[in-house]
Amino acid sequence: MSSMYDASFDGKVLTCKAAVLWGPGQPLIMQEVQVDPPQKMEVRVKILFTSICHSDLTAWKGEDESARAYPRILGHEAAGIIESVGEGVVDMKKGDHVIPIFTGECGDCVCCRSEKTNLCELFAVNPLKTTMVNDGKCRFSTKDGKPIFHFLNTSTFSEYTVLDYACAVKIDPEAPLEKMSLLSCGVSTGVGAAWNTANVQAGSTVAIFGLGAVGLAVAEGARARGASKIIGVDINPNKSIKGRAMGITDFVNPKDLEKPLHEKIREMAEGGVDYSFECSGNLDALREAFLSTHTGWGLTVLLGVHPSPRMLPLHPMELFAGRQIIGSVFGGFKGKTQLPSFAQECMRGVVSLDEFITHELPFEKINEAFQLLMDGKSLRCNLHL
């Protein structure tokens, strides 16, 4: 591994390797890029570990045409060390260990001051945003000066990246960075959905639709809260073994059923689960998740990314049965305020991170890591820069 940072870079344009996407579905090209120094209220970070999330996969495929912008550096799950800070940054300094976050927290806007939301007015997640907030320009460029667009406030598929101050979270330097990268998205999103959005109670029943990294993080969160029954739902039978190792008490493969999925779950949970979580990005699964909850109080939390133009598959009158549905972004965590303490809980073993990292590869093999995710063989492949 290269040195953590080089003092000679401070305030200068530096050249480093990045995995650049030049068009939808094309292999990422490992090439040299130029990275500008951080401007006012920005930090430049040396990325040490990064992994691939399904949101990266969706962007790579170009499934949302409105979010297409090329060339672009994807990536939003990572951990690294601050190389330099821009004017006005007072809560971080060179050498600090940080986690990039795709939905930031400025700390000053009406939303950041409210306990009712974790969505910042200026730095909330926006897949259409391709430049920095400060001046609307890119901090990446090719060697001949062509701008390279940013992704989800982070762009971590690069040896160095520039972040708005609101999108970098300082963590305990004793925390293992190779595991802390998971808190940038998947684990925080799933555990937070169970803890913050749903507020799962001890003894309650849960159904999780889609057992990828986010779904299994929901299971970890529900297990930590003392849920009595955690039903995992997936069409991949291999997910049963992994799921049971991470908190799932029961497993259902919809392909094995002769009755509607929600009817089966209602039978298993004596009338329906207290909480269901849709983590697959499938609208049919969302409807089944909604109908699998108990009448009167069932809560469905939407976590999956839905690039399809299809609308919610619900009749308005179905909401009068007492069931509720709500979306959750980043598990309801306020990144800069709450993530440091969540990282401490993970270090204490309240949430186990080890099972999420199924593969490790050098950064240069990023296309192989994408293929592992597409083939359903990995939860998270940790890339070492």
Automatic annotation (TrEMBL):
Cofactor(s) the record lists: Zn(2+)
Name listed for the protein in its UniProt record: alcohol dehydrogenase
InterPro entries the UniProt entry points to: ADH-like_C (IPR013149), ADH-like_N (IPR013154), ADH_Zn_CS (IPR002328), GroES-like_sf (IPR011032), NAD(P)-bd_dom_sf (IPR036291)
Gene Ontology biological-process entries: formaldehyde catabolic process
Membership in a protein family: Belongs to the zinc-containing alcohol dehydrogenase family. Class-III subfamily.
Organism encoding this protein: Cephalotus follicularis
Coiled coil: none
Pfam families, A to Z: ADH_N, ADH_zinc_N
PANTHER family: ALCOHOL DEHYDROGENASE, ALCOHOL DEHYDROGENASE-LIKE 4
Keyword Metal-binding carried by entry: yes
Alphabetic keyword roster: Metal-binding, NAD, Oxidoreductase, Zinc
